[in-house]
Design goal:
It is a single chain. The protein is mainly alpha-helical and 146 residues long. It has one domain. Helices cover 73% and strands 0% of the residues. The protein is built from four helices and no strands.
């Protein structure tokens, strides 16, 4: 009886730690999105940033927030994705690291793509918002099923 209580507390604390880490990540991305860019030639003057560049930054935060919600709703439960599943079939630290690593890699790739092709800001922002909303919907479904 005591052993099951300890394992329940450990699983709950891991969920809270995962949720807290995701919240820190989302807050850091949102502060990055709110920061004003500076010109490299005139460091004291802000550069006029396009509305789609701002939208892309906010969409990156929305994408990571949706991903964090999905991880928080799935952590410690049965995972259907074989890549993210542990040996006992649940989502754990390894799967969480893979999930956040893939999202971070995608956003880094988008960042460098946008440096070369600024006209891609609009489609990437729309796509990130859509995928973030999809992850949020999956998280809501996971919480309703439990």
């Amino acid at each position: 009886m005591f052993h099951s209580f300890v394992s329940l507390c450990a699983a709950t604390s891991r969920r809270w730690i995962t949720l807290a880490a995701a919240l820190v990540l989302v807050l850091s991305l949102s502060t990055m999105a709110a920061a004003e860019p500076r010109s490299e030639w005139l460091p004291n003057r802000p550069v006029k940033e396009s509305k789609w560049k701002k939208a892309w930054k906010w969409s990156a935060a929305a994408l990571m927030a949706g991903n964090a919600m999905d991880v928080a709703s799935s952590y410690g439960y049965q995972e259907t994705n074989g890549v993210l599943r542990s040996a006992n079939g649940q989502l754990n630290q390894r799967g969480t690291a893979i999930k956040f690593g893939v999202m971070a890699g995608a956003l880094v790739g988008q960042y460098y793509l946008l440096k070369q092709n600024p006209e891609m800001e609009k489609p990437l922002a729309i796509t990130n918002f859509a995928v973030g909303a999809a992850f949020s919907g999956i998280a809501v479904r996971n919480w309703k099923v439990r």
